[in-house]
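U., I forgot to send this yesterday:
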Amino acid sequence: MITAFDDFPIHAGSRPVNETESSDPNHYDRYFFNGYRSDASLYFAVALGLYPNRHIADASFSVIVDGGEQISLHASRRAPVDRAEANEVGPIKVVVLEPLRRHRIVVESPENGLRADLLLTARSGPVEEPHFLVKAGQRTLFDYTRLTQFGHWSGWIEVDGQRHLLDSAPGSRDRSWGVRPVGPAADLGAPVGESQFFWLWAPINFPTFATHFDVNEYASGKRWHQTGFIIPDFGSTIPGISHSDETRSFDTVEYAVNWRRGTRWAESFTLDFHDPPGDAHTNNSPAIDPQAIDPLTIDPLTIEMTPLYEFQMLGLGYGHPEWGHGMWKGDLAVACERWSLPVAQPCDPRHIHIQALCRARMGEHEGIGILEQLVIGPHEPTGITGIVDPFG
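Result:
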């Protein structure tokens, strides 16, 4: 069926846009956004996903004010035939005002005590992370592309009638599409490999630049995915680098984590970005002025992160037993839930997946960002054992 988006030169195959090249029921297309005040008094996140082969779209908006309570709005609908209408799920809407530059988030659910009108303006271009591809035996488990981008938020969030203003509040977003596990768990036959997933993701906003890190590792510590970037603001330069708007990538990223006892969450976290021996840059990154003395030119480049509090990814449907991604809830369903923070059982499977809002320091540079953590199963290098056993 021809739809509105077919009028744009965006096709990646021979079929109309609303017909995916893959018949995999786990095919998805997703937006994620987060934002926070620099004083950490407010944190929010938004997610909207389309699962065309399941004929489902869903979205969630979740906010923490002053650290005491997380409030989450969930919505699910039958996916529209026309992709041009897929940006709205009940009371939650994501509007692309200017691709890769400006996005608007609208939430309108006063009966649940939540309203918002927010504008994200990009501070830099997007970075494309290395492709995610993992198989479980013969079955494709992950096969997707993702970009990450940084920006500043303006607008307001209203919680129970009280309006909270945001003005140049830092944040980030990601955009991904492809195949990964969604929907209700299905019988997939004989087990292949171990029940294990280790994931760390750390986008950090500094005053004139941002840094980005992620890593996936097997239980042994062997990596199957990693990312390390420094991204300057539009029109600015990274000290010691001659060209503006150039993203500096790193061949090697290392980390050190101290787990908080009784959890699978970091109490402290340190990142080291390394240039490869004999060749300080990869991916066409520009050369560094050897006379530069700014901390950003030191190898290794070290970032220290101190978690302030944890945002439950459950609030966006991740691991949610009722509002998980791609679950059929009917033609339109909406619900709101609230819980006190910190949660009483951090190793309950629903609560393991979090984003910790963190203070960050790189030499003399101070920033704020998140450390997303999802650690299921053992991880030998950091001393994690069992499937959801608490550390220590």
